[in-house]
């Protein structure tokens, strides 16, 4: 492992690597190395032939002289820790080497540098962008490695690389954490034992917000409230900011979708710490969450209820179903349900007003309405006649279709335990569409489930479906479903279009 302190020598090393056709990686650090840095180095070694670690405490990114003075420095310790990793070189220049007398050029980062850290640390990102640009020009790496913990910094650097057409690929790696969840940071060494324990409040607050999101909460304001409540219980920590943002531009998010980022900054004693979590589907790997954040698109219509995080959470929960009480009657494993198609067919979840609940689950998943929307079958033909629509294009403008059951079932009727279990998933799907005012319930199973588990009526509290539908072939009532909404809802009960020999006449005039 070579220790290089001059720009001319590291230039020579980089030129030699490129002349030999070897790929070159840079892992920029400010020393005080820890497991977060080591994870970047290990990733660099897996991907590149030559790995250079830079160690330089950049004075231009400190807006407080005291913070610069207190920043931990121990080059000998860092070199000892790097030795077992068998990297090729350490670039450890002096301040005079990087900023010689007369140095007067700097990078002015754009809009993404202004909020959050940019607001609380004026000039910070200008210093970061300047030193990173200088390192990239000095070493000319093929790949440069950064950590998710400094999420806003990665966006600033990425924007600089794109805007200035730098010939380098950035690799962003997940945050590494200690056993209690505290993100590894060079500043952690400055915490006393009590402060070190209190510092976990950053991660705990983010986990609280993430848990709410996984539970179906999509309002960013509710997540921020939860973060602040966790901080309120920790007297040694002072929250500087908490934010839930769109990942591309760091603008405050109103509703959470996959890829949104929750960020916090706080002072614990005299030490300032930051942390973040990328919000996404339950169980998603850290690398997948990073991919969601770094490739997601900005929200264009803040007024629309855009499919995303809530939908994916519902889909994952349904896919994870392991307690089906209808096992003896299952022909095929659980299939794809409405929540898997919301992004494609319902760009604004606030638009649909009518939900149809039935036992659509066809024997062949390929004939499922949402998978083959323009391919007709007996169920689709009967459904469209009942509702008075001519095509799927017309159908999706007003209606959504979901099922009483989460699987294919061959039995004429399903055990009520199965209906009870599936009602939890049904309710979650219906909640995806907050403006529903009418339900069309098809057939005995959906009717029984709706009465017992959505309206919560006892066994003697409702008529058998066949008796209810006589003589006109359909029935309606107005109900309240507290677990869905406080509004009064209309419900139409009809025969299932393909189960049994009885058919309901069109109810189109009543749905207009």
Notes on the protein architecture:
This protein has 512 residues and is of the alpha/beta class. The chain has 3 domains: 2-173, HUPs (Rossmann fold); 186-286, 2-Layer Sandwich (Pantoate--beta-alanine Ligase, Chain: A,domain 2), CATH 3.30.1300.10; 309-511, Uracil-DNA Glycosylase, subunit E, CATH 3.40.470.10. Helices cover 37% and strands 16% of the residues. It contains 20 helices and 14 strands. The chain has helices spanning 7-19, 35-47, 65-70, 75-82, 95-98, 117-120, 124-139, 151-163, 193-198, 201-214, 220-232, 286-295, 309-319, 342-345, 378-387, 392-398, 416-431, 443-454, 465-469, 508-511; strands at residues 2-4, 24-29, 50-55, 89-91, 143-147, 169-173, 237-245, 261-268, 271-278, 354-358, 399-403, 438-442, 474-480, 488-494. The chain has a 6-stranded parallel beta sheet, sandwiched between helices. A 5-stranded mixed beta sheet has the order 11-10-12-14-13. Strand 2, helix 2 and strand 3 form a beta-alpha-beta unit. Helix 10 packs antiparallel against helix 11 and helix 17 packs across helix 18 (443-454).
């Amino acid at each position: 492992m070579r220790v290089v302190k001059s720009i001319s020598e590291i230039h020579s090393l980089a030129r030699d690597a490129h002349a030999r056709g070897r790929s070159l990686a840079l892992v920029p650090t400010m020393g005080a190395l820890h497991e977060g840095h080591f994870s970047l180095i290990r990733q660099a070694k897996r991907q590149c032939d030559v790995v250079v670690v830079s160690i330089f405490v950049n004075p231009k990114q400190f807006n407080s002289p005291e913070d610069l003075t207190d920043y931990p420095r121990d080059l000998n310790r860092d070199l000892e820790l790097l030795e077992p990793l068998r990297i090729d070189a350490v670039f450890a220049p002096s301040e005079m080497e990087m900023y010689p007398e007369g140095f007067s050029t700097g990078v002015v980062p754009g809009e993404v540098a202004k909020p959050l850290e940019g607001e609380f640390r004026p000039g910070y990102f200008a210093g970061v962008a300047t030193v990173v640009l200088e390192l990239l020009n000095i070493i000319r790496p093929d790949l440069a490695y950064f950590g998710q913990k400094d999420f806003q910094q990665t966006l600033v650097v990425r924007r600089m690389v794109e805007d200035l057409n730098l010939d380098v690929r950035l690799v962003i790696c997940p945050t590494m954490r200690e056993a209690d969840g505290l993100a590894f940071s060079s500043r952690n060494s400055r915490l006393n034992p009590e402060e070190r324990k209190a510092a976990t409040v950053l991660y705990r607050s983010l986990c609280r917000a993430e848990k709410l999101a996984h539970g179906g909460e999509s309002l960013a304001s509710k997540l921020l409230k939860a973060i602040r409540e966790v901080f309120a219980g920790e007297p040694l920590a002072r929250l500087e900011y908490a934010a839930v943002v769109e990942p591309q531009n760091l603008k405050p998010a109103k509703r959470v979708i996959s890829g949104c980022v929750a960020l916090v900054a706080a002072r614990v004693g005299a030490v300032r710490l930051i942390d973040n979590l990328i919000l996404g589907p339950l169980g998603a790997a850290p690398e997948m969450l990073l991919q969601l954040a770094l490739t997601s698109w900005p929200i264009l219509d803040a007024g629309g209820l855009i499919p995303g995080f809530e939908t994916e959470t519902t889909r994952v929960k349904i896919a994870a179903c392991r307690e089906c009480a209808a096992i003896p009657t299952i022909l095929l494993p659980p299939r794809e349900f409405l929540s898997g198609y919301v992004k494609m067919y319902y760009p604004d979840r606030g638009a649909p007003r009518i939900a149809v609940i039935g036992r659509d689950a066809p024997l062949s998943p390929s004939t499922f309405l949402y998978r083959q929307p323009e391919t007709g079958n007996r169920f689709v033909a009967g459904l469209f006649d009942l509702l008075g629509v001519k095509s799927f294009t017309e159908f999706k403008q007003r209606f959504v279709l979901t099922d009483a059951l989460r699987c294919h079932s061959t039995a004429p009727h399903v055990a009520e335990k199965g209906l009870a279990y599936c009602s939890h998933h049904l309710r979650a799907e219906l909640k995806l569409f907050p403006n529903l005012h009418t339900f069309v319930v098809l057939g005995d199973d959906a009717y029984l489930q709706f009465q017992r588990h959505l309206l919560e009526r006892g066994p003697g509290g409702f008529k058998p479906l066949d008796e209810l539908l006589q003589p006109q072939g359909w029935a309606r009532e107005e109900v309240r479903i507290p677990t869905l909404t406080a509004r009064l809802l209309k419900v139409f009960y009809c025969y299932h279009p393909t189960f049994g020999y009885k058919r309901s006449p069109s109810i189109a005039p009543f749905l207009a």
